[in-house]
Design goal:
- A hairpin with an 8-residue loop joins β1 (about 1-5) and β2.
- The protein has one domain (about 1-300): Alpha/Beta hydrolase fold, catalytic domain (Rossmann fold, 3-Layer(aba) Sandwich), CATH 3.40.50.1820.
- It contains ten helices and eight strands.
- The relative contact order is 0.14.
- With about 300 residues, the protein is α/β, with parallel strands linked by helices.
- The chain has helices at about 45-50, 80-100, 115-125, 145-155, 160-170, 180, 190-200, 210-220, 250-260, 285-295; strands at about 1-5, 15-20, 30-35, 55-60, 105-110, 130-135, 235-240, 265-270.
- The two termini are about 20 Å apart.
- Helices cover about 40% and strands about 15% of the residues.
Length: about 300
Amino acid sequence: MEHHFELRESIHSPILYGTSYESTNVNGVVLFIHDVNENRFRYEDLASFFNDRHLAFVTYDLRGHHQSLINDKKGHFGDDHGSNLLINDALEVLGYIKNRFGDVPYLLMGHGFGAHLAKLVFDYNPNQFEQLILVNPLSLPKMSKVRHAVLNALTYRKPQLKKRALNSWMGVAFNSNNEQERYSFLSHDKKIVSKYVSDPFCGYSLTQRAIRDALQVMISSESLDLNASNTEINVTIIGGKDDPLTHYGRDLVALKRQFIKAGYNQTTLSIFDGLKHDVLKELHQSIHLYQLLENIVSKFY
């Protein structure tokens, strides 16, 4: 069963469009935050996985994505303080589902850029969740000089500087004229890449302002002094060994150390051979990933 909802914090905010995929008996709720340059409907297979195990799956379009647009402007988070607005949006959705479902376990899950938002939302109040799942959070430049060069380049309204900065940051073929090659970082499976390329609500560019906001979110997430008020929570980090956007999984090891250092001793890391950035689209092709998620949710049904 699908329940579509619309939320608006104020008349100056965009309407956030979301969908709650619900089973007959809801034993828990997964709040899922998607990556940039995609939309909430890409994860209907994942929603079915959780629904079959009596967990509701709630997701929404990030501002500037699909239906949640500001003045019909794609790829734009806001004219000011976009990084804060993104976090506030997620908290707004969390408040909505808390009112809708009441006293049940809540799992927070984020993919790519959405994993950084999930981490910041989790840190706001860890006691609201039973489980945190972070999937292939995007990596930042390793050296501070490179990071500052990227941020500075993005202040100029010169597309060539923007593309050069993004390429040096991520090391992927964003400049390619071939869309299959440009988005090959998603998956080895060409069908997954083709479906992404053919989706009109995937792959469009972020605005200059939005890219800076996204980087600020990621910097805040990476440098976060984690809230250790409930370190008994299970934290699961998932990645693909062939994902260039996490430096091939290497940065996920540092992320695990960050949680362990803060006292989250129930933190686990699983990096899967042969998978790239879009690991969740390969749930039914990877028996090990499937079994990992099965083990996570088994305690809730």
